[in-house]
User: Fold this.
Amino acid sequence: MANGTHILEVWGDLACFTRPEMKVERFSYPVITPSAARGIFDAIYWDGKRDGGAIRPYFHWQVTRIEVLEMPRYIALRRNEVKGRVPGTATLNKWMDGKQPEPLRADGDDETAGRTQRQTMALKNVRYRLTAKIVPKPGNDRGKLNACFQRRARTGKCFQQPYFGCREFPAFFEYIEDPTTTSATPVPLDQHLGFMLYDVFDLRREVVRDNDEPFITLFDAWVRGGVLEVPYFDTETVKKPGRA
Assistant:
């Protein structure tokens, strides 16, 4: 860990970082998005306190750099997806309190049930080197948070399996103590990706409520020499709702 930053090398057989402009069919960006990268760090270590219908996070992850270690390669898949959606938080809380849960049926006659076959343009054999740092909320100890993540990542611990965009595409990781000792180098890729999804949450929030609306942010992404430099969330480079 140098200057409070952490580096993970992550890899997997399949990945799909769906472009939001695709309404039905999934079509992946050629490179992992900052939100998907943040999700991998979150899966290893995230901490906060629940207060009724809200969560007070102790920190958020700021992804700063994404290195592409394998050239992007697409694979076409057809998958069966369930039409219905998981109920909202209020219903889930009632189930947790003992109310009999209602099954999400894979087969049925109405338009909200049953399965549908959809096309997916996914990535195969992906590998990235991700750099991120902890940004603590007021009143939290940065050193303690960094030490907790480092201890977990070194031993391969995670509280849920990290994944590449879809839960059926697991991601495997290794904590990199010294990036100069790794043999993997970024691929010779130079590409303008256009506006890429940055995140769907307002990372600055000190209180996250169950009924908060999605906070969609975008940024103009360039891959140069196989490296995607990610701007800080608070900068003008990241386009936020209500901002031209």
Observations:
- Residues 44 and 214 are 23 Å apart (CA to CA).
- The chain has three helices and twelve strands.
- The mean pLDDT is 88.
